[in-house]
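User: Continuing from earlier, I have the next pair ready.

Assistant: Great, send them over.

User: Here they are, in order.

Assistant: Folding the first of the pair now:
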Amino acid sequence: MSVLCPLCRHPAAQPYHHDQSRDYLQCAHCALVFVPAQFHLSAEQERAFYDLHENDLADSGYRRFLNRCAEPLLQRLPAVSEGLDFGCGPAPLLAQMLEDAGHRVWLYDPFYAAEKSALRRDYDFIVTTEVVEHLAAPGVELEALWALLRPGGLLAVMTKRVMSPERFAGWHYIRDPTHICFFSDDTFRWLAKHLGARLELAGPDLVFLQKSGVDAK
C-alpha cells in the first residue's frame, strides 16, 4: 500500500532512513522526508514533550536564536505591519520582539494559544519558527496560512533543512520524536512553485515565501 506524502499528497514515497525508533520516507515528487503516521506521538504525548522545554522570555540565548528570524524579517517588513506567530509556544518571545519593533502580532498555537479567531483574519506576515517539522499535515496547514496572507505578504519559515542521506543519519534533529517532517531546498522550491510564491533561501534554517503583490481574487 502506497503512503501519501503529507505535503503534496503524491503516493511515490521511497525509504530514506531507518533507526531504532522509526522509519523515514522521501517523497519522489516534492522531496519531503517524513515519518509515517504509525510512528507519530499522540496529542497527549506531544504536549507532554513540549512541556519539558524551558523557553523563557528573559532567556538571552533564546532571544539570540529567534533573532536569526526576527532581524532579517524586520528588514523586509513595512512599518506597522500586522502578523501572526503560528506555533508560538508557551513563551511567545518572537512576537514580543516584533511588537517591540512597532508591529502588531497575533498568536496561535494548538497547545498554548488555541484562539481560532487568530486564524480568521488576514496578515502582512506570518512567522513559523521551528514549527513545520512538527506538522502531521504540512500541506494543509501551509496552504491555510498562505490563504491568510495579504497581497505582497511574507511567510517566514524557520526549520533546519535536509542536506543528504549521509548527514541525515547522524542528524540531531531527527532524535526529537515530535519532528516528523523534514524540508530541503528542493522541497521549498516545490512549495514555492505550488503556492505561486517568490522564494528566498535567507539562511541555513530560514526561508521567506512572498505572495504576489496583486490579489488574485
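And the other member of the pair:
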Amino acid sequence: MDKEKIISVKNLTKKFGNFTAVKGISFDVYKGEIFGFLGANGAGKTTAMKMLIGISNPTSGEANVAGFDVHTQAEMVKKSIGYMSQKFSMYDDLTIKENITFFGGIYGLSRIQIKQKIAQLVEELQLQDVVNNLVGSLPLGWKQKLSFSVALLHEPKIVFLDEPTGGVDPITRRQFWEMIYTQAYKGTTIFVTTHYMDEAEYCDRVSIMVDGAIEALDSPKKLKEQFKVDSMNDVFLKLARNIE
C-alpha cells in the first residue's frame, strides 16, 4: 500500500535580498511519520518551517501541507496544523485552565469541547493539583509538555515542533518523546526540528540541512550505514566535513 503524503515540497526557495536562506529543497513527509529536520544554527531549518506553516511566503518552489498550497491557502494550512515554537508560547500570568480555554477558543472549539479537553489534559498530564495555578509557576519541562498538548487541542493532522526539548533535563526529554510516539501512533504526523543528534535516532526519517540545502535524507539506520558510522552525531560531523 502506498503511504499517504501529508507534506510535499518541491524546489522550495527563500531569498532575502541577495542572500538565499533556503536553496531549492525537495522532500515528502508521510502520515503518522516522525520526521526530523536537522541542521546547525543558521542552516535554514526555521526559515523553511516558517514557509511550511504559512507565516512566510516562499520566493519560489512549491509546498503542499495537509492538502493545502502554502502560496494560495496559507490560512487553511494554519487551521490544519499544530505548532509549538522554540520559545514557550503560553501565558505565564494565566492559569493552566485559562490557557487551555484561551487556546481552545482560538482553535475554534466549542465550550463543551474545551471543557472536555481540559478534563482530558488534566487526567493525561496529572495536573489535578495545579490546574488552577499560574503557568509561570510550572517547571520548564511541564511547560513544554503542556504546550505540546495544547498544540494538539484541535486534533490537527500535523504538528510542527521547533526545538521542543531545548533546555530541559534528559528525563523530561525522554518523557516528551514518549508523548510524541503516542501521538504518531494515533496517526498524527510529527515534524520536528532539533539540534540534539541523539534525538534524531527517535525519528522515522531525518533530513540534514547544511547552508540552506538538504544534504542527506533517510532513516537514521540507513544514514549511519551510508556514512559508515555508529551515531547520527557522527553522520552530521562527517557530512559537514565532506561539504567543507
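Worth noting for the second one:
The chain has one domain: 5-243. Strands lie at 5-16, 19-30, 34-39, 60-65, 68-69, 81-84, 158-162, 189-194, 205-210, 213-218.
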